[in-house]
Write a structure and sequence with these properties.
This protein has helices spanning 7-25, 58-61, 68-81, 85-91, 115-132, 142-149, 155-158, 192-204, 207-213, 215-224; strands at residues 47-51, 93-96, 136-140, 163-167, 170-177. The chain has 225 residues and is α/β, with parallel strands linked by helices. The structure holds iron/sulfur cluster (SF4).
Protein backbone atom coordinates (compact mmCIF):
# COMPACT_ATOMS: atom_id res chain seq x y z
CA UNK A 1 0.00 0.00 0.00
CA UNK A 2 1.10 3.58 -0.49
CA UNK A 3 3.53 2.82 -3.30
CA UNK A 4 4.72 5.70 -5.44
CA UNK A 5 5.96 4.32 -8.74
CA UNK A 6 9.32 5.40 -10.10
CA UNK A 7 9.17 6.96 -13.58
CA UNK A 8 10.90 3.86 -15.00
CA UNK A 9 8.37 1.48 -13.43
CA UNK A 10 5.49 3.68 -14.58
CA UNK A 11 6.80 3.76 -18.16
CA UNK A 12 7.41 0.02 -18.16
CA UNK A 13 3.89 -0.74 -16.94
CA UNK A 14 2.38 1.64 -19.45
CA UNK A 15 4.27 -0.03 -22.29
CA UNK A 16 3.22 -3.48 -21.06
CA UNK A 17 -0.43 -2.42 -20.99
CA UNK A 18 -0.20 -0.95 -24.47
CA UNK A 19 1.26 -4.19 -25.81
CA UNK A 20 -1.37 -6.23 -24.00
CA UNK A 21 -4.17 -4.08 -25.44
CA UNK A 22 -2.79 -4.67 -28.92
CA UNK A 23 -3.12 -8.43 -28.38
CA UNK A 24 -6.48 -8.11 -26.64
CA UNK A 25 -7.95 -6.13 -29.55
CA UNK A 26 -7.20 -9.08 -31.84
CA UNK A 27 -8.76 -11.73 -29.56
CA UNK A 28 -11.49 -13.83 -31.22
CA UNK A 29 -11.31 -16.80 -28.85
CA UNK A 30 -15.04 -17.03 -28.03
CA UNK A 31 -17.32 -18.08 -30.92
CA UNK A 32 -20.55 -16.85 -29.28
CA UNK A 33 -19.19 -13.45 -28.33
CA UNK A 34 -19.91 -10.40 -30.46
CA UNK A 35 -16.97 -8.07 -31.10
CA UNK A 36 -15.29 -5.71 -31.03
CA UNK A 37 -13.26 -6.20 -27.88
CA UNK A 38 -13.97 -3.34 -25.46
CA UNK A 39 -11.53 -2.02 -22.89
CA UNK A 40 -10.52 1.23 -21.28
CA UNK A 41 -7.25 3.08 -21.97
CA UNK A 42 -3.90 1.79 -20.63
CA UNK A 43 -4.10 3.66 -17.32
CA UNK A 44 -1.31 2.84 -14.85
CA UNK A 45 -3.43 3.00 -11.71
CA UNK A 46 -3.53 1.47 -8.21
CA UNK A 47 -7.31 1.05 -8.66
CA UNK A 48 -8.96 -1.39 -11.05
CA UNK A 49 -12.69 -1.41 -11.78
CA UNK A 50 -14.03 -4.79 -12.88
CA UNK A 51 -17.39 -4.95 -14.65
CA UNK A 52 -19.22 -7.93 -16.15
CA UNK A 53 -19.13 -7.43 -19.93
CA UNK A 54 -19.88 -4.66 -22.41
CA UNK A 55 -23.44 -4.14 -23.59
CA UNK A 56 -24.57 -3.75 -27.22
CA UNK A 57 -23.58 -0.06 -27.45
CA UNK A 58 -20.11 -0.09 -25.91
CA UNK A 59 -18.41 -1.53 -28.99
CA UNK A 60 -19.41 1.41 -31.17
CA UNK A 61 -18.20 3.87 -28.52
CA UNK A 62 -14.99 1.90 -27.95
CA UNK A 63 -15.10 2.18 -24.18
CA UNK A 64 -16.69 0.33 -21.25
CA UNK A 65 -19.77 1.67 -19.45
CA UNK A 66 -20.48 4.03 -22.35
CA UNK A 67 -24.28 3.85 -22.22
CA UNK A 68 -27.09 3.94 -19.62
CA UNK A 69 -25.44 1.73 -16.97
CA UNK A 70 -22.33 3.91 -17.25
CA UNK A 71 -24.35 7.07 -16.75
CA UNK A 72 -25.62 5.66 -13.45
CA UNK A 73 -22.20 4.37 -12.41
CA UNK A 74 -20.41 7.64 -13.08
CA UNK A 75 -23.21 9.58 -11.36
CA UNK A 76 -22.58 7.48 -8.24
CA UNK A 77 -18.88 8.44 -8.27
CA UNK A 78 -19.57 12.08 -9.07
CA UNK A 79 -22.21 12.49 -6.33
CA UNK A 80 -20.25 10.73 -3.59
CA UNK A 81 -16.63 11.53 -4.48
CA UNK A 82 -16.82 14.51 -6.80
CA UNK A 83 -14.95 12.52 -9.45
CA UNK A 84 -16.38 13.17 -12.89
CA UNK A 85 -16.50 10.58 -15.66
CA UNK A 86 -13.57 11.98 -17.60
CA UNK A 87 -11.33 12.05 -14.53
CA UNK A 88 -12.40 8.55 -13.53
CA UNK A 89 -11.59 7.15 -16.97
CA UNK A 90 -8.19 8.88 -16.96
CA UNK A 91 -7.19 7.69 -13.49
CA UNK A 92 -8.80 4.27 -12.96
CA UNK A 93 -8.07 1.12 -14.98
CA UNK A 94 -11.35 -0.27 -16.31
CA UNK A 95 -11.59 -3.99 -17.05
CA UNK A 96 -14.32 -6.62 -17.19
CA UNK A 97 -14.86 -10.32 -16.64
CA UNK A 98 -15.54 -10.58 -20.40
CA UNK A 99 -14.42 -7.96 -22.94
CA UNK A 100 -16.90 -8.70 -25.72
CA UNK A 101 -20.68 -8.30 -25.89
CA UNK A 102 -22.24 -11.69 -25.08
CA UNK A 103 -25.48 -11.00 -27.00
CA UNK A 104 -28.98 -11.03 -25.63
CA UNK A 105 -30.43 -13.70 -23.33
CA UNK A 106 -33.78 -15.28 -24.16
CA UNK A 107 -35.39 -13.15 -21.44
CA UNK A 108 -34.29 -9.94 -23.17
CA UNK A 109 -31.41 -8.79 -20.96
CA UNK A 110 -27.73 -9.21 -21.85
CA UNK A 111 -26.53 -12.82 -21.74
CA UNK A 112 -24.29 -13.64 -18.80
CA UNK A 113 -20.90 -14.88 -20.09
CA UNK A 114 -20.65 -18.67 -19.69
CA UNK A 115 -17.97 -20.44 -17.66
CA UNK A 116 -15.72 -21.15 -20.66
CA UNK A 117 -15.86 -17.54 -21.85
CA UNK A 118 -15.12 -16.28 -18.36
CA UNK A 119 -12.15 -18.65 -18.07
CA UNK A 120 -10.77 -17.59 -21.46
CA UNK A 121 -11.08 -13.91 -20.68
CA UNK A 122 -9.57 -14.40 -17.23
CA UNK A 123 -6.19 -14.85 -18.89
CA UNK A 124 -6.26 -11.16 -19.83
CA UNK A 125 -7.10 -10.18 -16.27
CA UNK A 126 -4.30 -12.33 -14.96
CA UNK A 127 -1.82 -10.44 -17.11
CA UNK A 128 -3.30 -7.06 -16.18
CA UNK A 129 -3.05 -7.92 -12.48
CA UNK A 130 0.60 -8.89 -12.94
CA UNK A 131 1.38 -5.62 -14.71
CA UNK A 132 -0.58 -3.23 -12.49
CA UNK A 133 -0.44 -4.99 -9.10
CA UNK A 134 -3.40 -2.81 -7.98
CA UNK A 135 -4.26 -2.14 -4.34
CA UNK A 136 -8.01 -1.67 -4.74
CA UNK A 137 -10.46 -3.50 -6.95
CA UNK A 138 -14.00 -2.19 -7.43
CA UNK A 139 -16.09 -5.22 -8.40
CA UNK A 140 -19.28 -4.15 -10.17
CA UNK A 141 -22.11 -6.68 -10.28
CA UNK A 142 -22.55 -10.21 -9.00
CA UNK A 143 -20.41 -11.96 -11.63
CA UNK A 144 -17.41 -9.70 -11.02
CA UNK A 145 -17.86 -10.02 -7.24
CA UNK A 146 -18.01 -13.81 -7.44
CA UNK A 147 -14.96 -14.04 -9.69
CA UNK A 148 -12.82 -11.95 -7.37
CA UNK A 149 -14.00 -13.13 -3.95
CA UNK A 150 -14.56 -16.75 -4.96
CA UNK A 151 -17.93 -16.92 -3.20
CA UNK A 152 -21.54 -16.45 -4.25
CA UNK A 153 -23.17 -14.20 -1.68
CA UNK A 154 -26.30 -12.06 -1.76
CA UNK A 155 -25.51 -8.42 -2.55
CA UNK A 156 -26.83 -7.44 0.87
CA UNK A 157 -23.98 -9.43 2.47
CA UNK A 158 -21.13 -8.00 0.40
CA UNK A 159 -21.98 -4.45 -0.71
CA UNK A 160 -20.74 -1.96 1.88
CA UNK A 161 -17.80 -4.18 2.92
CA UNK A 162 -14.10 -4.26 2.08
CA UNK A 163 -12.54 -7.69 1.67
CA UNK A 164 -8.85 -8.48 1.49
CA UNK A 165 -8.33 -11.24 -1.07
CA UNK A 166 -5.51 -12.76 -3.06
CA UNK A 167 -6.33 -12.21 -6.72
CA UNK A 168 -4.03 -13.53 -9.41
CA UNK A 169 -1.13 -13.45 -6.98
CA UNK A 170 -1.86 -9.91 -5.74
CA UNK A 171 -3.08 -9.02 -2.23
CA UNK A 172 -5.88 -6.59 -2.89
CA UNK A 173 -8.82 -4.85 -1.19
CA UNK A 174 -12.11 -5.58 -2.92
CA UNK A 175 -15.08 -3.24 -2.65
CA UNK A 176 -18.20 -4.77 -4.25
CA UNK A 177 -20.87 -2.60 -5.86
CA UNK A 178 -24.20 -3.62 -7.42
CA UNK A 179 -24.45 -3.46 -11.18
CA UNK A 180 -25.82 -0.05 -12.22
CA UNK A 181 -27.89 -1.39 -15.15
CA UNK A 182 -31.64 -0.95 -14.93
CA UNK A 183 -32.03 -4.76 -14.94
CA UNK A 184 -32.07 -4.97 -11.15
CA UNK A 185 -33.76 -2.48 -8.81
CA UNK A 186 -31.67 -3.73 -5.84
CA UNK A 187 -29.75 -0.46 -5.41
CA UNK A 188 -32.94 1.63 -5.61
CA UNK A 189 -34.64 0.19 -2.54
CA UNK A 190 -33.52 -0.53 1.02
CA UNK A 191 -31.21 -2.00 2.16
CA UNK A 192 -29.57 -1.57 -1.26
CA UNK A 193 -29.64 2.25 -1.23
CA UNK A 194 -27.90 2.42 2.14
CA UNK A 195 -25.38 -0.33 1.36
CA UNK A 196 -24.51 1.25 -1.98
CA UNK A 197 -23.65 4.51 -0.20
CA UNK A 198 -21.53 2.56 2.30
CA UNK A 199 -19.69 0.85 -0.54
CA UNK A 200 -19.05 4.16 -2.30
CA UNK A 201 -17.81 5.64 1.00
CA UNK A 202 -15.37 2.71 1.32
CA UNK A 203 -13.97 3.57 -2.11
CA UNK A 204 -13.84 7.31 -1.34
CA UNK A 205 -11.69 6.81 1.76
CA UNK A 206 -9.40 4.12 0.38
CA UNK A 207 -5.76 5.29 0.14
CA UNK A 208 -5.39 3.81 -3.34
CA UNK A 209 -8.29 5.94 -4.56
CA UNK A 210 -6.61 9.03 -3.12
CA UNK A 211 -3.42 8.17 -4.97
CA UNK A 212 -5.32 7.46 -8.16
CA UNK A 213 -7.23 10.73 -8.30
CA UNK A 214 -4.65 12.88 -6.55
CA UNK A 215 -4.30 13.47 -2.85
CA UNK A 216 -5.16 17.18 -3.06
CA UNK A 217 -8.41 16.56 -4.89
CA UNK A 218 -9.23 13.68 -2.55
CA UNK A 219 -8.63 15.80 0.56
CA UNK A 220 -11.01 18.46 -0.67
CA UNK A 221 -13.65 15.87 -1.45
CA UNK A 222 -13.22 14.09 1.89
CA UNK A 223 -13.84 17.36 3.71
CA UNK A 224 -17.20 17.67 1.92
CA UNK A 225 -18.37 14.15 2.80
S1 LIG B 1 -14.65 -12.39 -24.38
FE1 LIG B 1 -12.46 -12.18 -23.91
S2 LIG B 1 -11.50 -14.17 -24.43
FE2 LIG B 1 -13.55 -14.08 -25.41
S3 LIG B 1 -13.16 -13.26 -27.48
FE3 LIG B 1 -13.68 -11.50 -26.19
S4 LIG B 1 -11.68 -10.76 -25.45
FE4 LIG B 1 -11.34 -12.84 -26.23
Amino acid sequence: MGRILSPVTFASRLRSLQLLHGELDACRACPKMIGPVVHGPPVVSPVLLLGQAPGPREGSFGKPFAWTAGRTLFRWFEETMGVDEETFRRRIYMAAVARCFPGKASGGGDRRPDAEEVARCETWLEREAAILRPDLLIAVGTLAIERVTGVKSPLSEVVGTVRRVRWHGVEIDVVPLPHPSGASPWHKTEPGKRLLLEGLAQIARHPAMHRAIGEDEASQRRSKM
